[in-house]
Amino acid sequence: MESGAIVTKVADLNYGKQGPGVVKLVVAVPESLEISSARMIKPGSRVATEYPNLTQSYFSNLGIPVEIQFSFGATEAKVPELTDVVVDLTETGSTLRKNGLKIIDVMLESTSELIANKKSFADKKKHDDITAVQTLLLAVMRARGKVLLKMNVPEAALDAVISMLPSMKRPTLSKLYNTDYYAIETVVDRSQVNLLIPQLKKTGAEDILELAISKIVP
Questions:
Q1: What string of DSSP letters covers the chain?
Q2: First vs last Cα of the chain: how many Å apart?
Q3: For the chain, how many helices (H) and strands (E)?
């Protein structure tokens, strides 16, 4: 939007520094000012931002002439000595608050996306390469927060253990050679695993392994 580029959206990546969620382009001013809306900003105010075109358009629509200053990072640290207003991208607003700023308006909301040049995406060879990148990126993201559990289970406890196991489809089951034990493996949420393992042990599972997963390709 800042550059006016016309692109093809390939995939919504749905991640950020604080985890999945939305990022916001916001207008912020010092907490000490009695300002609660961008409409209250004085004409001629200095506005520091890494998004000058979006910012100029926003204040033009409000009918407020401002002085746009392009910022090369650490925008929030420039108030009030170098600028009066900040337009910055944030997820939680914590960095702005640490620098004594308050958010008075949200210009837009966005998520992380994989995008492609339209001509490149229409080209068969480049389209296949872009799709391969998409597949690998999404595979890594699907694996975040997941672990692989492997265990050995006696036949007598098999049904009870399987009933406890979450799974992407069905747990993988194979009989151990020349025993009445079965090997089970399944993918579970990392957030559940510390509560699940003691219960599995109590129910009869043995030799439990928890393994990291780097990619999940459906």
A1: --S---EEEEEE----TTSSS-EEEEEEEETTS---SGGGSPTT-EEEES-HHHHHHHHHHHT---EEEE--S-GGGGTTTT-SEEEEEESSSHHHHHTTEEEEEEEEEE--EEEEEHHHHHSHHHHHHHHHHHHHHHHHHHHTTEEEEEEEEEGGGHHHHHHH---SS--EEEEPTTSSEEEEEEEEEHHHHHHHHHHHHHHT-EEEEEEE-S----
A2: 32
A3: 6, 11
73-101 confidence digits (pLDDT tens): 666 666 667 789 999 989 888 888 888 89
Q: Mean pLDDT, to the nearest integer, of 162-189?
A: 89
pLDDT of the residue at 91:
86
Cα separation, 132 vs 141, in Å, equals 14
The answer to whether residue 18 scores a pLDDT higher than 60 is no
Domains and their CATH numbers in the chain: 22-110 (3.40.190.10), 145-212 (3.30.70.120)
Take residue 76 and report the two structure tokens written for it.
């929030």
**Does residue 162 sit in helix, strand or coil?**
helix
Q: Are 186 and 199 in contact (CB under 8 A)?
A: no
Taking only Cα atoms into account, the Rg of the chain, rounded to an integer number of angstroms, comes to: 26
The structure tokens listed for 183 are 């090997």
The β-bridge partners of 131 are none
Q: How many CA atoms lie within 13 Å of 34's alpha carbon, on the beta-carbon side?
A: 0
